[in-house]
Design brief:
single chain; alpha/beta; Quinone Oxidoreductase, Chain A, domain 1; six-stranded parallel β-sheet; 13 helices
Amino acid sequence: MYALQKTRPSFGVELRDVPQPRAPGSGEALVAVGAAGLCGTDLHIYEWTPGYEGMTRAMPVTLGHEFAGSIAEVGAGVDGLVPGALVAVRPSVTCGRCEACVAGRDDDCTHRTGLGVTRDGGLASHVVVPATNCVLVPGDLDAEIAALTEPMTVCAEAVATGEVHAGARVLVIGPGNIGQGIALFAREAGAAQVVIAGRDDGLRLQVLRHMGFADTVDTRDAPLSQALAPYLAQGLFDVVFEATGVPQVVAAALSVLRKRGVVVIAGIHPAPVTFDATRLVRAHQQIRGSYRAPPATWPRVIDFLGRHRDVVRRMITHKLPLDRAPEAFELARQRQASKVLVVP
């Protein structure tokens, strides 16, 4: 079968002819991939920006950590999964044996591996995964919507981290898929206003408008505070989400945040971040990081996707077959697409 792999610690990816996966062992499932999404993490891996050196020992490794598909086969001891069932796959694989896992803190697992990062992921026709990482999806959803589950759990976790409440005024900086999902969950949480800012990112801002977000701002021709002037005239924001991965944006986010407000950093940054700590202290502001969501969030997000499928489908602007996966990466990298799905 063909698989899109990272083969060396440098720029690029390779489409390779590799053996079919082995039969699933005890506690495992073989998934026939229906759709796999590309995200910012995949682009960092593609460009080989700092922070992914730990992947080197796993190379060659098949990429793809946002995916869904149907169960093709299950190994011994697997209950609740039958061939043909549609599942979204959690990419975080924990050992179940370390102190953190035994204590129920799975996300602190000291031996955690990641599908599509340090073990083979979903940019292939089939992949073997732990059965416990398969989350059942209702039959009335399709694999393309289900493939959005992983990034949308990241968005749900970010909104929970920011404690967005009814009536809050929210700013999302970064109109990519994580920013889009954050805007959706902030609206779901009852935010009175959700403003999304991007820089020279017309296509993705247009996608947001099609998703029902009228308050979009392009900072191409003006700094953030100037571009936001009509909104800042109403007051500073209660919660600001940074979803760009651009280090300089953090200081800009703090500058438009009210006293005792919260900045949530959801972007992955290739370099250290600097900001005025004295101003932060005097304004009682907080910076919080947000990353993966716990397993309990996944069913809730799948329910959300089911209720809002027509809106979230608008996030998907391109679908390409696996043999055009390198092209898919370039579309995402050049910001000529919103969500790109690879359909094996």
